[in-house]
Amino acid sequence: MNVRAANAGSRRPASPDAATLIETLGLRTHPEGGYYRETFRSEQLVETPRGPRSALTTILFLLTADSFSAFHRIASDEVWNFYDGDPLAIEILHPGGLYERRNLGPGGPWQTVVPAGAAFASHVAEPGSHALVGCDVAPGFEFADFELCERSELSASHPNAATIISRLTRG
């Protein structure tokens, strides 16, 4: 039997609303925007130029239509895994001036990697929507390795992305 034909009449089950997910998953506000909870921190340590870090950390991360993840950088690669909700856009400003948008979720890839050192932000596109993702960081995330980006710095290095930079930075 053709799986596509068998599923053609079925709809994706409705996902819980964002408020239910925040409460059920025990999420709290994140400094860059959105809501999160760390779900795993490896006890194994690896040496980095910034000192010892957990080999891997993972979080659940939720964005809603009235929140966004502001442009920021981290010192490690970050794997994004889509779990539930509506499509999510990840805006990436690579060193050297390249701007890239990656869509994640239904209708697109379900996983992507943001490279260490790139400035990036994320948001849901539709009013009233939300997206629940998992973010895996290796070597593991520490707030000491987190930088919230300045609008003026990003605009100078990526003038081709001025509109999205203005929309997804704070202050």
Describe the overall structure.
With 171 residues, this protein is an alpha+beta fold. The chain has a single domain (32-167), classed as Jelly Rolls (Sandwich), CATH 2.60.120.10. Helix content is 15%, strand content 43%. It contains 4 helices and 13 strands. The protein has helices spanning 3-7, 18-25, 151-157, 162-167; strands at residues 28-29, 35-41, 45-48, 51-54, 57-64, 69-74, 77-85, 88-93, 99-104, 111-114, 119-124, 130-138, 146-148. The strands form 3 sheets. The protein has a 6-stranded antiparallel sheet with strand order 1-2-5-12-7-10, covered by helices on one side. Strand 1 (28-29) and strand 2 (35-41) form a beta hairpin. The longest helix is centred in the N-terminal third of the chain and has 8 residues, at 18-25. It is globular, with a radius of gyration of 17 Å. The relative contact order is 0.22.
Number of helical segments?
A: 4
Neighbour order of strands in the largest sheet: 1-2-5-12-7-10
User: Could you say which overall geometry the principal axes of the C-alpha atoms support?
Assistant: globular
**CATH superfamily grouping:** Jelly Rolls
Helix content: 10-25%
Number of strands: 13
Give the class from helix and strand content and strand pairing.
alpha+beta
- Please indicate the percent range of residues in DSSP E strands (runs of 2 or more): 35-45%
Number of domains: 1
- Compute the average pLDDT: 90
Nearest-angstrom radius of gyration? Answer: 17 Å
The fold-level CATH name is Jelly Rolls
**Termini, distance in Å?**
55 Å
* Order of helical and strand elements: HHEEEEEEEEEEEEEHH
**Major sheet attributes:** 6 strands, antiparallel
Extract low-pLDDT stretches: 1-13
Specify the CATH architecture.
Sandwich
Instruction: Give the CATH level 1 class.
Output: Mainly Beta
